[in-house]
Amino acid sequence: MLEVWVVKWRTDVGSMIDDRGSESIAGNVLARLSGLRLYLFVLCLLGVSSLASVVALLPSRYAPPWMHTGQESLHSRYLVFYVSLIAILLVLRRPALRYADSLVEWLNRPTYRQARFKMCVVVSLALAAYFTQSHIFIFHRGVNVWNYQGKKYDSGLDGTPVISEIKFLHFEKGEMLRYNLGLTNFSFSKSLPEKLSDRIRLIRYSLKYRQANRRFLLPVNLSNPIHQYYYPFPYESYPPVEELVGISKWRVEAIASPSSQVDVLSAELVEYGTVK
Amino acid sequence: MKKLQPVNPFSELGRTNFFVFQAVTFLALAYLYASWNLQGIAFLDPAFLDDVTSESTYSYWKRAPYFFPSLVFIYKTLPLTPEYVKYLQLVAVGVGCLGMSGVFPRLMAMIAFPLHVHLGSLFLIANDTMDASTTMLAMALLILALSPAPFFYQWTTKESVKFKEPSFWPVYLFWMVVAMYYCAAGINKIVEVGPHWPLWVRIDRYARWADVASWSKSIPIGHPVVVWMMSFYWVALAVSAVTLIIEVAAPILLFRFRGRNLFVLSFPLMHLFIFLTMGFGYTLYMILNVALIDWDQLLQHRTVQKVGTERGVDPKLKKAVFTRFGKRT
Fold it and tell me: A159, A255 in Cβ contact below 8 A?
């Protein structure tokens, strides 16, 4: 049975790659497409996505490896979405098939066949990436939803103390000046090197650029900000990087007043590393 | 309003759209890699490429379908140094500048696409997240790499006389991808929360919290006036509602709307207001959004109107200008 399929596949591919070149490959591939096949392809895609969502509802270790939702709790919502789309396609199968037929007819018109084929491939790729919830770098499922509902967004507003982790650079003459991840060009602290010595090397390297008022080639003010944008401290006015002697992280309890003054109530050293 | 018609991807109406698309895509590439500094990746423990379970790295990007095509696995054997990353970034900037200047542009697109995927994947393995506009840039580079060479403006070769294919379809394809991307973001909001998302997001709470966030979380505040405006519930609600409408209606705005050249400005405006409110800068999107304007229609329409419809205008051109929103061919 397998041999029959292999022979058939070879014959199919052989007939596509004939002496008429790539134009004929595109034409042959598109000629094999029909409205019904396109309709079934979309149904299968939605079916696979629904199944994947069901699997992802199980403990996360069973989640299909391509899924990139990052929010397990939402799989049930996406399952409802996919099943609704399948139901709509089944109920409205006649108009859907008519639309698929007209699309295939357009794709198979004799002019600009290669262009039509490329358009078909790129759009199919994007659709497949979206419906399977995968991130294939050139396309992904779109921006996640965020909100500002949590109590976190009330913290400190009514004069109550806020606890936060503040990072400092230490220089030879005793200066302690703030920095943040924006200096390192990483978005999350979990991305930073685990060894403190590596982290200091990274900070020294980045600080050299920032003291020249650049991240890489362009001035900081003109450059494209990193995704998780951080407050731009005036690193160019900090002492030279050669005078950097260490870094520290503090847990600070403070009150922010409306006049942007910060009253520090307590501070606890969490981490300190020196340059050897 | 007259009956809405689809945009024709093979309409013969000048080449300005493709030229703008070429210029802004290469500009975005050069700008991105001249701005960001990826050299910090070289300071990570080399095990970051192996340890799938490590908290310090994002395991998704180390799965075979992403790890191998992006060629990131080569750093398991080759040393990854800051200088090496720096040279790769310089190559990306150079390729962007050459492509933008019209020096072997198609070849530059064919180099730029895998290079961007490689550097982007390396950054994602180390850093978890990139701006969504870098994804859009990758798609734009792929579309450029798939476009026939005679479409590009270039200094190195003369235009092929025999090649008659209208150069609009890659731009059309880019519009389609952009429309899908914005629409996907809107649909995600409806699926994950519901159509009442604008009531739920509460940007006003963020705006009121911005002062505290700026020192405790080191998050930047946007423009003080815009942040102050957003701190009012009704303003924030209206802005959120407009955002959702723009996102969901993106395909209609881009393809089925006669005033599209005016309304595509809503995309960069949306990104500008996100920046002015929360400090998240989507500059790449704003650069790429320039290619969403139908420059050919805009310029030719003006020419036709200026010269007059009766004399001095090629009837074919006149027909093309007024049938951009015509039947698909």
Answer: yes
Rounded distance, CA A86 to CA B184, Å?
18
In terms of CA atoms, which chain A residue is nearest residue B166?
Answer: A112
The amino acid that residue B278 corresponds to is M
Question: Is the CB of residue A167 less than 8 Å from the CB of residue A101?
Answer: no
CA–CA dist A226, B134 (Å, integer):
11
- Model confidence pLDDT, tens digit, residues A50-105: 988 888 887 666 777 777 765 667 888 888 999 999 999 999 999 999 999 999 99
For residue A194, with 0-12 CB atoms within 10 Å meaning exposed, 13-18 middle and 19 or more buried, which class applies?
middle
Could you tell me how many residues make up chain B? 329
- The shortest C-alpha distance from B210 to chain A (Å) reads 9
* CA nearest to B204, candidates A101, A82, A81, A154: A154
Chain A interface, best mutation among B215, B247, B277, by max A CB count within 10 A: B215
Cβ of B33 under 8 Å from any chain A Cβ? Answer: yes
Test B184 with A142 for CB contact under 8 angstroms.
Answer: yes
User: In DSSP terms, which residues pair with B8 in a beta bridge?
Assistant: none
Residue B218 to residue A65, Cβ atoms within 8 A: no
Q: Extract the tokens encoding B294.
A: 């139908």
CB–CB contact A118 B173 (8 Å): yes
Contact A117, A60 (CB under 8 A): no
Q: Are B297 and B324 in contact (CB under 8 A)?
A: yes
Query: What is the model's pTM?
Result: 0.87
- Helix or strand (DSSP H, E) at A177: strand A176-179
B177, amino acid identity: V
Contact between A142 and B187 using a beta-carbon 8 Å cutoff = yes
In SS3 terms, A236-271 reads as: HHCCCHHHEEEEEEEEEEEEECCCCCEEEEEEEEEE
Residues A219, A225: Cα–Cα separation, whole Å? 11
C-alpha–C-alpha distance, residues A141 and A131, integer Å: 7
Closest CA to B183 of B232, B140, B244, B256: B244
- HSE, CB side, 13 Å, CA atoms: give it for residue A166: 23
pLDDT digits (tens, 9 = 90+) for A227-270: 777 888 889 899 999 999 989 988 888 887 656 677 788 888 88
- Residue A239 is predicted with a pLDDT of 92
With CA atoms as reference, report the closest residue to A146 among B273, B184, B206: B206
Asked whether B66 and B121 are in contact (CB, 8 A), the reply is yes
Q: What is the largest CA-CA distance in chain A?
A: 80
Distance from CA of A6 to the nearest CA of B (A): 24
What are the C-alpha distances in Å from A75 to residues A43, A71, B161, B192, B247?
Answer: 19, 8, 54, 9, 22
Structure ipTM: 0.85
Instruction: Label residue A129 exposed, middle or buried (CB < 10 Å: 0-12, 13-18, 19+).
Output: buried
